[in-house]
Amino acid sequence: MPTLQDIANIAQCSKATVSLALSNHPRIAESTKARIRKVAIELGYLPAEPDNDVASKPAASRRSIGVLYIGEDAQKSIGQGFFRETLLSIIQEASRSNCNVVMIEVNASNGQITEDELCEKIYNSGVEGAVVICFRKELHGFNTLIDQQFPLVFVGDHTIADRDVKLHTVMTNNHDGGREATEYLLGLGHSRIALVTSPTSTERINGYFSAMRTAGHNVSDKHMMIVSPPYEKNDGRLRMLGEQEFTAIFATSSLAGLMVLQHLRFLGKQIPDDISMIVFDDSESFQIESPPITVMKQDLESLGTYAVKMLLDVVGEVLPLPGRVAISGRLIERASCRSLHAPLKVNR
């Protein structure tokens, strides 16, 4: 069940404002009330009303679809870029398709949940199908739902634990994105490119190695540093950034990118004069770094939009067999990568 905080995050206001708006308090502007009520209806917090412009048809004719979030803290995640932007596009596409959206949260600190818990939450929600968002690759607890052919669409490349089954999936084309990010650095004249990654970014890693080998460069696991939080100054996993003469870094996630930035500051290295850097996935902090960081940005709006379209096709039995949509990322060039073809500018 969505909360006031969920509505506040989407409507970009305080929880107190949401509470006052939904109670029709005179202190809140009518335009703000309308915006908040629209979000509340789209999230399924309030029922659709015939006289509300959100409900162009009677409430009984509107389908309900779920957004199943599996993780440690949905309240925290909903304010972060990936979840926030994807959820917003899901809500917008659902509204265009005359559907209500119901938030379904499953707390799973270790990634494992029981079949009974998951089925109970899904069926008690009353939804006809659900878009699944989880930041772990391997998922538990879905066997019963899959056996019962409950309509599910997964955002991201996931597998079901102890089972080889094809899933309806909408995901970023991670291999091509990893290759394009690496080719961008190669095009600037870099060949000594370090790869900083989490162990789960398999396709982005493969894209890096594909680009390097196609360009004729011998690379091995020695070029790759596998990291996970928390970051520490004497982190041995990033030791090679100070020991080897890399001219550029490709970080395969925003978290890996943030760890690299911290370590480069510790080493006293300047971007891009001492080393260039590109990150797969964007973050608000990358935009305000000095210099701003070049990124391969996921198309989160399309992820959410296509997830809803696919789910409605599955619900309507238009797409009975598992489908897979891979969405290209977009390279956003900022100021963190230096061309080795041009002389280094020296500040005087």
TrEMBL record:
The keyword Magnesium does not apply. Gene3D superfamilies: 3.40.50.2300, lambda repressor-like DNA-binding domains. PROSITE patterns: HTH_LACI_2. CDD domains: HTH_LacI, PBP1_LacI_sugar_binding-like. SUPFAM superfamilies: lambda repressor-like DNA-binding domains, Periplasmic binding protein-like I. It holds the Pfam family Peripla_BP_3. Transmembrane segments: none annotated. One of its GO terms (molecular function) is transcription cis-regulatory region binding. The keyword DNA-binding applies. InterPro entries: HTH_LacI, LacI/GalR-like_sensor, Lambda_DNA-bd_dom_sf, Peripla_BP_I. Residues 2-47 form the HTH lacI-type domain. Keywords: DNA-binding, Transcription, Transcription regulation. PANTHER family: HTH-TYPE TRANSCRIPTIONAL REGULATOR GALS, LACI-RELATED TRANSCRIPTIONAL REPRESSOR. This is LacI family transcriptional regulator. It comes from Paenibacillus hemerocallicola.
